[in-house]
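Posting this for the archive.
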Amino acid sequence: MSDKTRKFPRGPANDAILGEFVDRDTLRFVRDFPYPAALIWEALTDREQVTKWLWPCTLFEAREGGRYSFEDSGMKWGGTISVFEPPTRLELDIGLFEIFEENGGSRLIFTLKRPRSGWSPMTLAGFMGWLGRLTRLIEKAPQVEVERFASDIWEAMWPAYERLLRHHVTDGAKAIYRLHFAPGDPTLGPEAKSHLDVLSVLLHERSDLAVVIDGYGDDPCSTEDSIKLSAERMHAAAKYLEQTGIEPKRLMHGFALGNYHHLVPSDTEAGRAFNRRIELRPTY
């Protein structure tokens, strides 16, 4: 289809498009809109709109060299705007946004570079959700629809990104090692130790790789207790890998998130058991 006849999909038509690896260190998302570039640019650079589609934004100095910051659930992070060229190019620490206007519509290309902690299927699925929220913000969809979409697309797409990483980045190796636990228990079982033994072999063979460890839980306990339990499970896995000869500096402790980020519905014991996990992600 030529540019002159290209149609601009809205909503779900855009949402279904996975990011594509340009190379092992670069991934690109493409979204088309039947709107002018100025409208897309405003959504990317207005602090109140950024809060609605990305993260709660406490500061956004709309200029090159300007600062930006986010704050959510007690965590704060931010950076500096390295490129600010209205209304076509914006680069933050998270990636480069480029807008191309043609034939009454716009194409947004969002390019990510491999972070120090490697590619995360969960984060890539999250970016699909955030871009979908951007689309719905521009289309003035009700916020309840926006939030429901973001949750649904994340649940649907993280397995696709695990497959994409195995095909394009890991040469067929696992992208994530998941260890599951008994309720209220940080003890490593035989199956968990078996997975860690396989991961240890990989880390001994690949001295260029570290591993990021994140903890999740789905136990009948308070948020505070579930975060504590997640951290204990992460520590148990790291200690086991150290005992197999992996240097502690290669074991990167990520987030102890407790009863958050369910991979499957948590309304059955089988679902809670699957969600009761830690994840070890080699930094491909």
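The mean pLDDT is 91. The chain has two domains: 12-168, 177-282.
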